[in-house]
User: Fold this.
Amino acid sequence: MDDIAAKRRAAVEEQILKAATTDRLYELMQRANEFLAEQVLLQRASALGRDGVFAFQYGHHGVRLWLPHATSDLIQRRILSTSTFHKIGPLTQLAAFLPQGAVICDVGAYIGSQTIFFSKCLNAAHVHAFEMLDFSCEVMRRNIELNSLSAAVSIHPWAVGQQGDRATLGPFKSTNIGATTLELAEEGRMVCRALDEMTFDRLDLVSIDIGAGQRRVLQGAEATLQRHRPLILVSLGPTDRDVVRFLEERGFKETERIGPADHLFAFAT
Assistant:
């Protein structure tokens, strides 16, 4: 019996050693892949030149983007490393739902990657791009100019929410500038504007990607949503059930989940 037990123990120990070796090899391969990806990124960043402009091709569209923080910021790094638009998968799926000549509100436009995709690649008639960070607006403005879209895009340097909301900026991370959020504060320096303060002859899509505060954006757009019944693309986390409930109570139903956190709602006729 002792001999059998010893053999079984030896067999188990051998399996554990093999598993440990496999895990170690996998870990080393992961590190090597990350190192290679970083080297490719740095090579591309060095090739940007002094102007920091990155050029890539999307279909038959030539795209140019100024990426001043390409080696540090998550979204700019992703654009540089993949040579395409941020969130290109969800955006490609969204294209099937949009009519020609769409009018779009892009809330949380950051440096304009999505805005440019809507305008240049989907032939939107007009895009209203909303961005609360001044320096991000400046980057987006240059990107719009680089792609000759100034006539087709309006940049609104606003924090969007309910009319009169006061807020301050949440924690800022230079490694993920686009994830900067607002925090409501009675004495906050930032005063939010509502989409209902604007007048639209037509509105086909409202895209909201702001990390937090999605419901307040929708509450500040309630009249606009009921008047135009646009598609609503909103990034949601597991705790954002109140946003889904708000939309469903007003006749909007989720029609598609087009990304890990990107949900598409349409008015249920």
In short: Helices lie at 2-46, 74-82, 88-95, 113-121, 134-146, 214-219, 222-228, 241-249. DSSP finds eight helices and twelve strands in the chain. Residues 85-267 form a domain with the Rossmann fold fold (CATH 3.40.50.150).
